[in-house]
């Protein structure tokens, strides 16, 4: 332990001893007033509260000065924080009205109800193609570049043709199987 640590610990012990002595003195005052019999205007609780306040004021005066500005808002561990009332909680959401008992009323089941789980999901409509895709049946000796030049008008579009028909052609675009039906890009 260094010299500064030793001095700090001595200072801390002295401060704790002073606090303990003040607490003991406040308790003694409360006890003395209780023994004397408090007057009709003061109760034991009021005496204890004033003694505690006085002790707190003496401790605050004896405490070393604080550095920097005091915090603007109380910290969660402070007594001031506990004295501030909590903000009001929002009102609970109103419950849905029960389904009407009228015979023709429509009832929509909620996502968590058993009725909702019993209703099958609505079928998803498949998008209908607006125009039929053009196709080309590969002949012996055809290449993707030749098909793109003849059918699409640009030999460089063979990559686009291959990308659309990779499942039919396979991993090698140079080996196009004769008889394969290719979908042509628009």
Structure description:
By secondary structure, this protein is mainly α. It is built from 7 helices and 2 strands. The longest helix has 34 residues, at 3-36. The radius of gyration is 44 Å and the shape is elongated.
Topology of helices and strands:
Elements: H1 3-36, H2 44-62, H3 79-83, H4 114-118, E1 135-137, H5 144-152, H6 158-164, H7 166-169, E2 181-183
Antiparallel strand pairs: 1-2
Features:
186 residues, two-stranded antiparallel sheet, 3% strand, elongated
Number of helices: 7
Class based on secondary structure composition and strand pairing: mainly alpha
* Main sheet: strands, sense, barrel: 2 strands, antiparallel
- The strands making up the biggest β-sheet line up spatially as 1-2
Extract low-pLDDT stretches: none
End-to-end Cα distance, whole Å, is 84 Å
pLDDT average, as an integer? 77
Helix content: 40-55%
Order of helices and strands: HHHHEHHHE
In angstroms, what is the radius of gyration?
44 Å
C-alpha geometry = elongated
The percentage of residues in β strands lies in under 5%
Query: Can you count the beta strands?
Result: 2
């Amino acid at each position: 332990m260094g010299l500064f640590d030793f001095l700090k610990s001595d200072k801390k012990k002295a401060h704790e001893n002073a606090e303990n002595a003040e607490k003991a003195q406040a308790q003694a005052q409360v006890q003395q007033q209780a023994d004397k019999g408090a007057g009709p205007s003061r109760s034991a609780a009021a005496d204890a509260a004033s003694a505690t306040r006085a002790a707190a004021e003496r401790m605050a005066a004896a405490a070393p000065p604080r550095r920097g500005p005091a915090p603007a808002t109380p910290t969660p561990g402070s007594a001031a924080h506990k004295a501030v009332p909590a903000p009001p909680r929002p009102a609970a959401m109103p419950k849905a009205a029960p389904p009407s008992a009228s015979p023709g009323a429509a009832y929509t089941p909620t996502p968590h109800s058993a009725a909702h789980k019993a209703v099958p999901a609505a079928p998803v409509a498949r998008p209908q193609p607006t125009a039929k895709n053009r196709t080309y049946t590969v002949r012996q000796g055809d290449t993707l570049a030749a098909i793109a030049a003849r059918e699409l008008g640009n030999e460089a579009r063979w990559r686009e043709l291959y990308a659309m028909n990779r499942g039919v052609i396979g991993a090698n675009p140079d080996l196009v199987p004769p008889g394969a039906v290719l979908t042509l890009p628009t």
